[in-house]
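Risk mitigation, structural track. In case the binding assays with NAP fail to produce interpretable data, a predicted complex structure has been prepared as a fallback.
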Amino acid sequence: MKRKILITGASKGIGKAEAEKLSAENNLFLHASKLSSFQKKAENIRYFGADFSKIENVSGFVEELKNTTDSMDVLINNVGIMILENFSNFKDEDISTLITLNLHSHLLLTKKLIPLLLKSDNPHIIFMSSMSAKNQIEGESVYAATKAGIMQFAHVLRNELAGKIRVSTVHSWGVNTWDDPEGSPILVPENIAEVIEFIITRERPFVIESIDLSHELQWKGTSAPWSPQKINS
Ligand SMILES: NC(=O)c1ccc[n+]([C@@H]2O[C@H](COP(=O)([O-])OP(=O)(O)OC[C@H]3O[C@@H](n4cnc5c(N)ncnc54)[C@H](OP(=O)(O)O)[C@@H]3O)[C@@H](O)[C@H]2O)c1
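Fallback model:
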């Protein structure tokens, strides 16, 4: 049976790959920062544009979504950006943007979607965290804080919603969403998409609580090739 799936940040990268993977079997609701971010639009998919770095836009988005559906089967909280900088040099506004977009908007959207998800007989919430949540990669302090926040939030939510809505978190090392010119050994968006499809198609009561993903040859240290220079070096 076709399920209604909302994917945030679905115009490119991992979210786009998820949409491509899930489109044949499901009814999709796709979000990006603006409608024009979707270059090609399919007739059977609903598209939405809302800049979630401004938290007040989340409520407006949900109202718009509710004009198209009063229920949802799967919420994939994927939207997010990375800003890399040594913390001493971090711009104040970048700290704010990362926390609003990567953390606050996920919590608020999830809260507002729970009533719609509870109308489904098989609801599922997915959070796209990162292996940065569990490591110490220089330059990623604020990003890691948002992803660790998501990880822990999801753990508690899973308990609160047990028996009603399944909650899963995906932690990935690097995924090539920027056409890495050096050809680093990192995953591709389709790897994440196939894992998401696997997670949401498991039969209840089985739940994949969280899953860690990496390329077998991927660098896994305290500073990445893309980390900024050390302070004073
Ligand atoms: N790539 C990695 O190595 C990696 C690894 C682990 C986890 N992740 C996580 O996976 C998720 C997707 O990452 P990605 O690499 O696929 O990102 P991406 O290719 O940069 O795509 C980001 C998506 O988020 C949307 N977005 C960005 N800023 C937004 C805003 N202010 N308001 C609303 N939507 C906005 C973009 O829409 P527009 O096109 O409109 O900008 C786009 O659809 C993120 O949460 C990221 O932290 C990524």
